Amino acid sequence: MDRRRFISAMAAGIAGPFAGVACAGSRGGAKPVSSGYGPLRPVRDLRDGKVRLHLPDGFHYRSFSAAGDEFSDGSAVPGGHDGMAAFPGPDGTVILIRNHEINGPVGAFGDKDRAYDPMAGGGTSTLRVTAQGEVLQSAPSLTGTMMNCSGGPMPWRAWVSCEETVNGPDVGDDFSGGDNSKLKRRHGYLFEVPVGRAADAGPIRSAGRFAHEAAAFDPAAGALYLTEDNFGYPSGCYRYLPPRHPVQAGRLLDGGRLQMLAVKGAPRKDLSVGQPPAATYATTWVDIDDPDPAFTGGAANDEAVQAVGRQGREAGAAVFSRLEGAVHHQGMVYFVSTQGGATAAGDLLPAGFGQGRGQVWAYETGSGRLRLVYESPGSSTLDLPDNVTVSRRGTLVLCEDGDGDNYLRGLTKTGGIFDFCRLRPIDGDPGAEFAGSTFGPGGRTLYVNIQAKQGTSFAIWGPWERGLF
Question: Concatenated DSSP letters for 253-303?
Answer without folding.
Answer: PSS-EEEEEEETT-TT-B-SS---TT-EEEEEEEE-S-SS---SS-B-HHH
